[in-house]
Design goal:
single chain; 5-stranded mixed beta sheet; 5 helices
Length: 253
């Protein structure tokens, strides 16, 4: 095939752009890590947690988020965590500065078009001052006054997951002894190696969500309903369990 000089320049330019994009993508993947996923549930998350436990997951610590109006139940893995979250105190959840997170609206409308998920990243070691997306500083009452959580400026876009980044978080297998959690599960799952969000609103992601996708920590595809697929340990066993409709979650391993 013969190229005109202008065609060769265009081809080289496209190739350079693709190379630069792949380098940027690699840098993002090294800069950020997936920290945890929350799924909004009914109060207490009893049915949801029982299904996960029956599958073979071992539940870890739970807590009430003082002043935020939420409470949780958690399942920890070597590199990340799955959180079941619900509104514990409606008054607190709608107070200042909590209302800006839209947790109340997201929870109460999760069966009426709102995305029921939150996706949390953490910076890789050495990148603590870098935030993956445009954000605002959230200072919930349960944190000390010197600490904050970076929340995506798309927090009022209820058709997308709440995006946030915790600079002081770390892998659960690196928790201090006094904060250690059960990491050995009956089903043998160790590390989350794929996070894929399925969404009816996937065709037009906000700049903040697009920035998260570019970290290569989360994937996004179109679907008729909201759910998340979590892949474990590179999914080499070819197994899968679907927790829907009670919990919008599929686990593959």
């Amino acid at each position: 095939m013969q190229y005109k000089r202008g065609d060769r320049k265009k081809s080289n330019h496209r190739g350079l752009k693709l190379f630069e994009r792949s380098i940027d993508s690699l840098n993002n993947a090294m800069t950020f890590e997936f920290d945890h996923l929350f799924i909004l549930t009914d109060i207490g998350a009893s049915a949801e947690a029982n299904r996960l436990s029956s599958f073979g997951l071992v539940e870890g610590a739970s807590r009430i988020h003082r002043g935020q109006g939420t409470a949780n139940r958690c399942f920890f893995f070597h590199n990340a965590m799955l959180e079941l979250l619900w509104i514990h105190d409606p008054e607190e959840a709608q107070s200042e500065p909590i209302h800006q997170t839209r947790l109340w609206e997201r929870s109460t409308n999760r069966n009426n078009g709102a995305c029921p998920f939150g996706i949390c990243l953490r910076p890789a070691q050495g990148s603590e001052d870098t935030v993956a997306f445009s954000s605002w500083a959230y200072r919930p009452p349960y944190l000390s006054e010197t600490m904050s959580i970076a929340v995506g400026t798309n927090s009022d876009v209820l058709t997308e997951p709440m995006l946030f980044q915790i600079s002081f978080s770390k892998r659960p297998d690196r928790y201090s002894a006094d904060k250690s959690q059960p990491l050995d599960h009956g089903v043998g799952l160790r590390e989350i190696t794929r996070v894929e969000l399925v969404s009816p609103a996937a065709n037009n992601p906000s700049p903040e969500l697009q920035a998260v996708l570019e970290t290569n920590q989360v994937k996004l595809r179109i679907g008729t309903e909201y759910f998340v697929e979590l892949g474990f340990d590179e999914e080499v066993q070819g197994q899968q369990i679907d927790f829907r409709p009670g919990l919008p979650l599929i686990i593959s391993w």
